[in-house]
Write a structure and sequence with these properties.
The chain is of the alpha/beta class. The protein is built from 4 helices and 4 strands; from the N terminus they run ααβαββαβ. Helix 4 (98-102) links the parallel strand 3 (92-93) and strand 4.
């Protein structure tokens, strides 16, 4: 491995775990359902979420979350051009947006296919 040149600074990024869960720590019910969460609606939280997302540099999510997001908004991708890595052993289809089509490496070629 080559050593960094003069003036090179190695910095560590910040990792934030942002999730909605029940009081007992579960994200979904035993049958993988999120109806309990969706019942609250998003309007009251939207501005906070938008502010949070504006400071995010990339996303990491599991395949179940990824597939849920895709089912909720077929044909679109709510995260725009944010780089996203999906943790999966399966080959999944990347969203068909201009940002994804032009930068497929954003989605991790090992996890998603165009």
């Amino acid at each position: 491995m080559q050593e960094p040149g003069p003036g090179y600074a190695l910095t560590m990024g910040k990792v934030l775990y942002y999730v909605a869960s029940s009081l007992d720590g579960f994200i979904a019910t035993e049958d993988h359902n999120l109806d309990w969460l969706l019942a609250f609606g998003f309007e009251a939280f939207q501005s906070h979420y938008d502010q949070f997302l504006a400071g995010v540099g990339s996303l990491v999510m599991g395949s179940a979350t990824y597939e849920f997001v895709r089912r909720q908004e077929p044909g679109s991708w709510a995260y725009g051009e944010l780089p996203c890595r999906v943790l999966t052993r399966r080959s999944l289809q990347a969203p068909r947006t201009a940002a994804c089509a032009s930068t497929p490496e954003t989605f991790g070629v090992s996890a998603l296919t165009q």
